[in-house]
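Subject: design request, 296 residues
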């Protein structure tokens, strides 16, 4: 009888992880967009952009072929590619036994539920649902008409303070406010022309939309932000359509974005522009109050 090797391989070495799992991640660039864009960012900027604690990466292999992967860049949550129940159980056991901190998890809805259940059984943690998201892929772009007054332009170094402030406001709105310095984020995006502003006729920025650098033929639109007092005027739709148009013109095969399913306005807007659903995702946090032997 032929034995089957089925095991997770863990590493803190980004290059080793990409050598092992890079082809797997590129095999489904839409479903693996977060892993692709985050590892590309780490490759460009170094593996400790969020703090001193080293990221951890893992690949699940079956007879030498990668079946799934994960990464965690502290202080952020664990991020998983699709996993079945067995993969979730074995990963939960491995991370718990290695005492790897897991404050939460992001994944498609089936995977996040499977891992959360396995993690609760292994550690006694309690799952706290944070948000539900939908991944969209651009089909035929439909630019909103009439466009609001003004024009788009690429943000530059002179916009750094504004971008930092807007990013901080955006991050706080989605519950990620404490995790990244807005100035560092702005510097990174400016370095590759990754933010487009919509300006009103007087030249005042009124909204922004960003894109990740292209990798594996895909890029993701993120974030899209309009200050609260300027919403409802079409700025978000106009600037999103502009970065989407530019992405298509650049030759990427897939233009993607996530939306919060609790926000029907943004989901309706992106569908009118031409985005079509791919898959649903969720983010959970874990709490460890009262747990013995595991501190999260």
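Subject: RE: design request

Done. Sequence follows.
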């Amino acid at each position: 009888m032929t034995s089957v090797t089925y095991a997770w391989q863990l590493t803190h070495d980004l290059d080793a992880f990409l050598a092992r799992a890079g082809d797997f991640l590129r095999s489904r660039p839409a479903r693996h967009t977060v892993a692709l864009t985050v590892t590309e960012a780490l490759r460009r900027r170094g593996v400790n952009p969020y703090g001193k604690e080293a990221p951890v990466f893992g690949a699940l292999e079956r007879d030498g072929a990668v079946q799934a992967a994960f990464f965690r860049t502290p202080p952020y949550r664990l991020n998983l590619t699709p996993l079945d129940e067995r993969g979730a159980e074995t990963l939960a056991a491995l991370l718990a036994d290695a005492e790897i901190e897991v404050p939460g998890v992001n994944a498609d809805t089936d995977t996040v539920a499977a891992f959360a259940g396995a993690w609760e059984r292994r550690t006694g943690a309690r799952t706290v649902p944070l948000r539900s998201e939908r991944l969209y892929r651009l089909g035929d772009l439909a630019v909103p008409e009439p466009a609001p007054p003004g024009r788009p332009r690429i943000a530059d170094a002179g916009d750094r303070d504004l971008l930092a402030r807007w990013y901080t406001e955006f991050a706080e709105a989605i519950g990620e406010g404490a995790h990244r310095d807005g100035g560092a984020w702005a510097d990174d995006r400016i370095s590759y022309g990754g933010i487009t502003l919509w300006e009103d006729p007087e030249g005042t920025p009124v909204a922004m939309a960003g894109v990740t650098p292209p990798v594996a033929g895909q890029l993701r639109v993120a974030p899209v932000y309009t200050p609260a007092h300027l919403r409802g005027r079409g700025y978000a739709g106009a600037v999103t359509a502009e970065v989407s148009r530019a992405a298509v013109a650049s030759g990427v095969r897939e233009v993607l974005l996530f939306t919060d399913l609790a926000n029907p306005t943004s989901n309706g807007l992106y569908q009118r522009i031409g985005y079509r659903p791919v898959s649903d995702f969720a983010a959970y946090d874990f709490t460890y109050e009262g747990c013995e032997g595991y501190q999260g």
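The helical segments are 14-27, 33-45, 85-97, 109-123, 160-173, 182-191, 235-250, 264-273.
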